[in-house]
Amino acid sequence: MALINLYNNNSIDTTVVSNLFIDVYMGEANDAQLKVYLYLLRMLNANLPTSVTDIADKFNHTEKEVLRALKYWEQQQLLDLSFDAHQNLVGIHMHDLVASQHSLRSQSSLNLTSDTDAASPRVTPARVATVAYEAPSGIVEPVAPAYSKPAYTADQLRAFKMQEDTAQLLFVAESYMGKPLTPAEMKSILFYKEELGFSDDLIDHLLQYCVDRGKKDFKYIDKVAISWKESNISTPQQAESHVGKYNKNVYAIMNQLGKSNTPTNREMEYITRWIQEYDFPLEVIFEACDRTVMATDKHRFEYAEKILSSWKAANVHKKEDISQMDQMYQRRGRNVNSISPATGDRNNHFNQFRQNDYDFDQLEQELLSN
Length: 370
Description:
By secondary structure, the chain is mainly α. It contains 17 helices and 4 strands. A hairpin with a 5-residue loop joins strand 1 and strand 2 (89-94).
């Protein structure tokens, strides 16, 4: 009897995801990054075409968010991106997670390929899916920062756990977190120790510092660690000095201005000036903050700075000095700024409203003469 030919009209209905991806990479990726990577795997396995625009439309993301996710996975060394001279995306090369990382970039065509042979990576025609996207000018973001976390393998994590001094460090970290560490979290500890060069004492201080502020998310802890490294911090004492800007007085001033975020460098410049250079007690700063909040919703630090710098010039030292200035201003206002029928409309209350622009030079002289 003749042989029977079998045909399958169904596309591949299964996408294989490496356990290493789940154990090491998935925990630290955000929603957009996970969707983009898994969708790339799905399209690659099915040999189906896709594009950045299609991915953005499918998951209701912007194209810039998709590109940012691709750059993230490139930083994690799970794939390589190739761009032409005009910064157009021309290739995506997917890496085998358990193989050595390679830098195979396509220069001639726009292909999504899989590295299935670690010893000799090559493009296999059966594993090609076209990706079409032309990036707008200037949309491509910079390459990985100076202290990006390497893509540690499961073997590297196991070796780290077996080091003599690691057991105590991991025990301390789990005590702070109140739970066993995940592989992704152990990867962060390894990053602090091996890449950033932190001592066990500094890692201990880092974890304690973040946990004391209610931050147990290792994405947050990673950012703090990198900021310390960039500030050349190598001891707990240096770290303590560096984070002085997060003391309770700073947060009290931020709250008084209606701010719930961590102060920016510019905002810290203002707060440091008010506390150290102007040498104002908190009650004086709070009074300026209260007046600022009542006056404006925008540029509050700049507004408060004008008030406090004027008070400094007027030789204000305590809250009672401000009250005395207000009283003198009101007395002067009744004599100087009152509006008569000859000079204004009695019924126009807006015209009769006195603006609070102190003549601080004159008030200072009045204060000193009393």
